[in-house]
Amino acid sequence: MRFIQTFQLYPFLDTVISLLAAFVLGTAIGAERQYRQRTAGLRTNALVALGAAAFVDLGMRLAGSAEAVRVISYVVSGIGFLGAGVIMKEGMNVRGLNTAATLWCSAAVGACTGADMIAEGVLLTGFVIAGNTLLRPLVNAINRIPIDAQLSEATYEVRLSAAPASLAAAREWLVEHLEAANYPVGDVELDEHGEGAVEIVATLVSTAVDAKELDAVVERLRRMPGVRHVTWESSTRD
């Protein structure tokens, strides 16, 4: 059997230590995720770290550190596809980014232990757990700070609905009133809602917006003949 010929005790023990360290550290990261009831919990993070360590250790055993570096690059790409699977978009909201980032870090921990850099893997594990726990109060504190509309970077849209016979004129009124208020229009589109309902959407060029000024423009547009409804909304770029 080739196994008997190729088996070496000390390299095998080195692999055992590397994989065991990856499993323990991945479990530590996953335990916090499991407690938070995230999509990728204890088992997922443990397996990601273990798999990354196994691939890197295999490259080290077969062809040395040069091959391990190439294996690490493939591990990073593979984890990118795995992370994309936990990211979900719900309307304007995106969920799962932090979970995907944690999986990425778990793979990095596994790569460290697979390359026999266990101390570095322990250090990285500490930073990952700290990022998911100690930074949470800071995030909550920042989220409670009121947003200054004058300083925030956002996309602003003015939406106007009018009678079909007044659409062309309403489009001109919309652009004229906004530019007269020093809010240049970057794009104007027609948003059809079915059954003949059409809405004109004007996207403002990136600029600071005063809510009261924009409300005044909207109020003037509402008084124009044929205009049924006017409103404005903002959404952050990030």
UniProtKB/TrEMBL annotation:
Membrane topology field: Multi-pass membrane protein
UniProt keyword Transmembrane present: yes
Record-annotated membrane-spanning stretches: 12-30, 42-62, 68-88
GO cellular component: plasma membrane
Any matching Pfam family: MgtC
Domain MgtC/SapB/SrpB/YhiD N-terminal: 19-139
Subcellular locations according to the entry: Cell inner membrane; Cell membrane
Chain ranges of the MgtC-like C-terminal domain: 156-232
Keywords, ordered alphabetically: Cell inner membrane, Cell membrane, Membrane, Transmembrane, Transmembrane helix
Highest taxon in the source lineage: Bacteria
Keyword ATP-binding: no
Known function: Virulence factor required for growth in low Mg(2+) medium and for intramacrophage survival. May be involved in regulating membrane potential by activating Na(+)/K(+)-ATPase.
Name the record gives this protein: Protein MgtC
Native organism: Lysobacter capsici AZ78
